[in-house]
Amino acid sequence: MDIQEYQAKPLLARYGLTTPKSGTADSAPAAAAVARELGGDGFMVKAQILAGGRGKAGGVRRAPTSEAVEQAAGALLGQTLVTPQTGGAGRTVKRVLVEQAHDVERELYLALLVDRRAGRLALLGAPQGGEEIESLAAAQPDSLERVLIEPDSGLTPAQAADMAGRLGLEGAGAAAAASLMTGLARAFVELDASLIEINPLGLTAAGALIALDVKMALDDNALFRHPDLELLRDQDAVDPSELEAQRYEVNFVKLEGDIGCVVNGAGLALATIDLLEAQGGRPADFMDIRPSATREQVATAFGMVLDNPKVRAILVNVYGGGVLRCDTIGEGIAAAMRKRSREVPLIVRAAGTNADICHKTLTAQAVPVTFASDMAEAARLAVAAVKQEAA
Q: How far apart are CA 368 and CA 350, in angstroms?
């Protein structure tokens, strides 16, 4: 779950992160009022959307006075901001963050994430930050300094001091950086984060470090431990069908294609998407129905795919085993079809426990379906069905 910058900064301030004085506003006059209350010689007005690259898209503006803040906020609020991370549709700006502007001598980059290959939390750093860090990291991976953190010991003082030195920091700046890294590593674990990124991290002439921008994501699967953090979810930034999927314990993400995918298992879902794309198809979603799903949850999952107006064919690729059997999936599909008048070509590949009963259930309930014997055939049939619909 991604959270907004204005939410992440106060969370991390508890762990030693210094941030500019700020306030949020959902109207231009309110933004000017925030600026007047903050005081100072200048301000930053920042669009609050869940996407990076706001600066290049015009979503971050400097304003010398409260009157200029009002103008900048008025230009941003209600506008659609398109960045490399939003896709072509962009995101509507509904709130701005107004901060006191700070002059810094250097901009650094600092991040914590899970290194899945190493199976460890990783601390990343670079002696230069800003919007070019992603392209720089892609072109020159060695430009990012990396420290792997052992789960038992956490980030040690020696590791933090070493990273500060590798970032070119000395004296007060190095001490402040080491302390900040230790606090962020503790925040990552205690808040069940999946990403904390400070970019840029500004270094002042006095050696102080100020987080000029923060990006933070929390692990959805751990939110049951943090009911207060669950409240930070931006409902407007999440597709309603994805929120419904979460309520029914289905992992579901909409994609841009026209072939709906109903799959149990994340790995199988990714393989299904790859097979469709190899056949020239375009998946409309990623779906992972959990092993403990009930017939009602399967029906909800299938219904979400069927309700997508872009979907012109549905591929069901399931493997029965353990708790979730194929007949449960078949019953859920049939139940969803009974509630809806819309029909699209349906291709089902079912294998494993009670696959034959799944076939019989769908046939007996007169569900229009084409059965496939294997995954490759199912993908080919789904792509062919879409092409036939378009002809």
A: 15
**pTM value?**
0.72
Kindly name the residue from 6, 197, 248, 331 that is annotated as catalytic.
197
Whether 109 is catalytic is: yes
Residue pair 127/199 in contact by the 8 Å Cβ criterion? no
**How many CB atoms lie under 10 A from the CB of residue 206?**
9
Give the total number of structural domains in the chain: 3
45-71 residue pLDDT tens? 999 998 888 888 899 999 999 999 999
Q: Which of 171, 201, 230 is the last residue of a domain?
A: 230
Question: Would residue 70 count as lying in a domain?
Answer: yes
Among 6, 109, 248, 319, the one annotated catalytic = 109
Do both 202 and 292 map to the same domain?
no
Note down the domain range covering 161. 106-230
Whether 319 is catalytic: no
Q: H-type helices in the chain, by residue range?
A: 5-13, 28-38, 66-76, 133-139, 157-166, 171-190, 227-230, 240-247, 266-278, 295-306, 326-339, 355-364, 375-390
pLDDT tens digits, 191-213: 999 999 999 999 998 888 999 99
Flag whether 16 is in a domain: no
